[in-house]
Design brief:
Helices cover 51% and strands 7% of the residues. The protein has seven helices and five strands.
Amino acid sequence: MGDSPGDKPYEQISEELMAERARQQAQKEAEELWKQKEAEITKKFRDAMAKEKAKIVAEKWKLETEDRKAAKLMEDKIQEELKKREEEERQRGEEQIRQQEELRAKELYLSLKQAQQHSQHSEHEDQEWKEQLRRSKAADEERSHKARRARDEYRRQSLRAIQKGKVAGLSNLFKGTSLNNEPEIKLNSNNPSPLMTLTTSVRKAWERPSRPISREILIRWFKEEQLPRRAGFERNTCAIAPWFHGIISRQEAEELLMNKSEGAFLVRVSEKIWGYALSYRQQSGFKHFLVDASGDFYSFLGVDPNRHATLTDLIDFHKEEIITSSGGELLLEPCGQRKNPPDYSSLFE
């Protein structure tokens, strides 16, 4: 764009940049398409090979020794043919993806070219483009900030409402589901909890802070509010559920789930809210969902409106029903303990 003989015109540089951006985007999309295509091809021929092998294995035991040799030769021949067909289809798939990549690069280039031509209305177009990007980024940040404030306000209002008793009516939904067929014991009334009766007869009913402030407070909350509700236990037994964990961090949860398959999960005591965190292993990483247990029910915060009488009810429900429609999370494999004693030992001492 300068005055030197070797400088390129602005239009040529812009053309090259747009072509490169289009090529990179098309290449990225082509790579994703090829991953899907390759997975489909591999599965198709793996299933076909397995079916053929199963068929031959089922028949070969009925044959004499020579027939078994012939069956083995036939199996090798079929496998060789299937591998050959798989490679041919793989090559065709690669060629299709390559052609789509080229077409996509052209489409993206034309789109970028049209966008540039549309924006060329003044000699200050470069500055206007930068200003537009700045405004867009600022708007995105403002939307994110508002969303965070809305979530924080929702949580504050929910906790405040629970503390003031505004959701007491919800407990009527679960009056018939008492785990011990006994009236529910209110910790802030004059009646002590079963655990408090066992520990001391003169201990005062505790007042829960607005949020967890220490590990000791969390342990006390669990013992005095959650143990009477059988949180962490299997249904109708005294055994602790294989998915239940103690006060462990997100990082520790992910390390436990690292070598697990998609659908593996665990439930840990949350250090952020009066409740739990469900850590879930998905194909490309991990997800963490907060479970509100501050009131008379258990429910996911922000993703699922269903309310459950017990923590086990929530877990069993989502073994059959997905947590979110976008993620399709089903709880398939509970992730147990690695340590001895287990990480929840302090909660049940």
